[in-house]
Amino acid sequence: MTLSQADPAMLDRLEAALHAGDSTRSTARLTGAELTPVGVGAMADTFKVRLHWNIPDAGPAGLILKQPAIDSAAAATAASLGAYEREARFYSELAPRTRVRAPRLYGVIDHAGVGFPDTVLLEDLTERHHPGDQLREVPIEDLDRARHQLALLQAPFWEDSATADLPWLHRRLGVPIPSILERMQRSWHSVTDTLAADLPADERECIDRFVASAADWAQLNPGPQTLVHHDLRVDNLLFSDDEIVLIDWQTIGWGSAMFDFAYLIGTSLEAETRRRYEAELLDRHVAELQELGVEWTEADAAETYRWAACAVLMMLVPPISSVKSNPRAVTMFRRMLGLGARQALDAGSLDLLTSRL
Fold it and tell me: Is 287 within 8 Å of 129 (Cβ atoms)?
């Protein structure tokens, strides 16, 4: 890893953000900072930062800095999607309203000078936590702990109209998605002879059918509405002996309460394991939501889950055409697409979709 020293301008920005976020003593001054790149995010550059203060213990000894990507194309794409502003607003405005375990926010910075924060300064969890591995099945105990965090995220915002009206939340469900059919078909067709060829025939046929109906599926958006992470999978979880932390909030949005649940278990468990545990996990999720003050029944949740079982396909088909040069990504997408197709087949999701259109 390459280590670099923060220049005076960056030191000033870091110090100002930490003071504004009440993360330091008001009289403390930042005398130095070393940055080491971490992570492989597609839309942002992330650094582990070691901080030096003129007063011992005046502020955090280190933090994670997540800022717009140096790659101009990636930064422009993320900015056009509102990803940077959305993540900063989640940490500053919504995270304090829920008990979900996310990294602590130390401060925000308007890195690009566009009038809103696009950079977050976060608690450094790298010493005690390790990232999940999307290429391996998640132990059911860990998956249940992640599901519990989802309940903590959802309950405070359940059917909350004020939150639903926030203009910066991501809308992937219940709204028209421009050119979605064309984009899905182009992406899926591009891997017909490669990634798709490795899937069993019934899984390929399932994805074919879903691609043709994806726009209608997204517009259905059934069930209660609440916050949706939109990418809640093991690669976006940090694990320690005593907790699980949810990260990567650039796609936080509004939609069906079953979307994240279905996506999490669909991408975390092999098909046989999922079949064994999914009903139990769903009932447990509803029970925890009820304990948190939510009114919902297992029967209604199970019906919504049938629709949401296509969440994996909705998330993964559009980007698959861009992963050819990354061996890990190819392996990961192949695995998750197969799991998602099998999940949709087991739930009868496409038959449900046909009956509602």
Answer: no
| 252-to-10, 88, 168, 202, 249 alpha-carbon distances in Å | 28, 11, 9, 32, 5
Question: How do the pLDDT tens digits run along the chain, 357 residues long?
Answer: 466 888 999 999 999 999 999 888 878 899 999 999 987 666 788 999 999 999 988 899 999 999 988 877 666 666 767 889 999 999 999 999 999 999 999 999 998 777 889 999 999 999 999 999 999 999 999 999 999 999 999 999 999 999 999 999 999 888 888 888 888 999 999 999 988 999 999 999 999 999 999 988 988 999 999 999 999 999 999 999 999 999 999 999 999 999 999 999 999 999 999 999 999 999 999 999 999 999 999 999 999 999 999 999 999 999 888 765 678 888 999 999 999 999 999 999 988 877 654
In the block, tokens 């502020």 appear at 59
Tokens 């965090």 belong to: 149
What angle is formed at CA 47 by the lines to CA 43 and CA 50, rounded to 5 degrees?
165
201-220 and 180-190 helices, crossing angle to 10°: 160
Coil vs helix vs strand at 262: helix
Q: How far is CA 330 from CA 110, 171, 323, in A?
A: 35, 27, 6
4-122 under CATH 3.30.200, yes or no: yes
Please check whether residue 68 is in contact with residue 118, taking contact to mean a CB–CB distance below 8 angstroms: yes
Same fold: 4-122 with 130-356: no
Q: Quick one: tokens of 328? A: 């890990």
Q: Where are the domains of the chain?
A: 4-122, 130-356
Element (H, E) at 227: strand 225-228
- Long-range (24+ apart) CB contacts under 8 A made by 269-272 are 269/137, 269/138, 269/140, 269/143, 269/339, 270/137, 270/339, 271/339, 271/342, 271/343, 271/346
* pTM tops 0.90, yes or no: yes
Q: What superfamily does domain 130-356 belong to in CATH?
A: Aminoglycoside phosphotransferase (APH), C-terminal lobe (3.90.1200.10)
